[in-house]
Amino acid sequence: MHLRHLIKDRRGAAAVEFAFVAPVMIFMYYGLAELTQGMMADRRASHVASAIGDLVAQDTSINTTEMTDVFNVGKAIIAPFPTSGLSMRVSSIRKDAGGNLTVVWSKTSGSMTPITTIASVPANLIANNESVILSESSYIYNSTTKKALPNALTFTQKYYLKPRKTAQVTWSTS
What we know:
The chain is an alpha+beta fold. Helix content is 39%, strand content 25%. The longest helix is centred in the first third of the chain and has 45 residues, at 13-57.
């Protein structure tokens, strides 16, 4: 008699259903939050590469002080994410009359190293006796909660920009 009464009793059904659904919903919440943060970090890394290249391409000559300022702009763009995972590189590439590519200068910030040679650029990007600015960024994103994204993700971006005011942005030692 008591067993039939207990089977028909539905007073705790909502609590049991919630106990089954809550962990899944919490995991989905963390997953979406981490995915959104990762997408924001990727977008900011892309913006860093675009902005630092654009700043250099607008100049006729650049020096160490100005390049430090350009890299500081990149660090400001990546905020509020930590700048410790950000690496940047800006290089000037020239194509000579024979169609050979040379790296005129290359400057870095973070763990990237300067490039000394380049094998190719995208087709029809640069004609003979022209130059292009190559800007790159790399950002290592570590999730704050490490629930849905337990491992670090690396976002890399590369932009080619033609100098605007001169045929080639030169490197000045002063």
